[in-house]
Amino acid sequence: MKGSKKIYAWFPFSISMLCAILFIYAATSKLMDFQQFKIQLGQSPILTAYADGLVWMVPITEYVLALLLLKDSFRLVGLYATIALMTMFTTYIILVLNFSDYVPCSCGGVLEELGWTEHIIFNLAFIVLSIMGIVLLESKTKPKPTQP
């Protein structure tokens, strides 16, 4: 029983680390190829007007999220924020795919190599993992009912 409790306790931590690595990798990739990222955001049919601000806001947000996920006391907030950001990214992809003739990919690194279907599945997988992490963390912190 003790072994299963350890695994149960490590699962939210592992999910958080995986998400943190994703955000650090994505933000760093965007900043390493900053000009390309800026061009791609500028070509976005939805984000063109906001590209100058988003070019900095997206990687900074990803780094902040990674920090939240790495710090035990902010992990739950980080997982909720991960769901929010990944949902925004996924919604953006779906909107652009359905309402635009041109679909630039402003993702970083190897994520650029994914097709759009794979990208949506990838994002949804991280959303599901984050939900699982939240459920496990919240069940761990809920007080156990006392017996009369």
UniProtKB/TrEMBL annotation:
InterPro entries: Methylamine_util_MauE
Domain of life: Bacteria
Secretion signal, residue range per the UniProt entry: none
Membrane topology: Multi-pass membrane protein
GO biological process: methylamine metabolic process
Name of a matching Pfam family: MauE
Annotated protein name in UniProt: Methylamine utilisation protein MauE domain-containing protein
Organism whose genome encodes this protein: Flagellimonas zhangzhouensis
Lineage, broadest ranks: Bacteria, Pseudomonadati, Bacteroidota, Flavobacteriia, Flavobacteriales
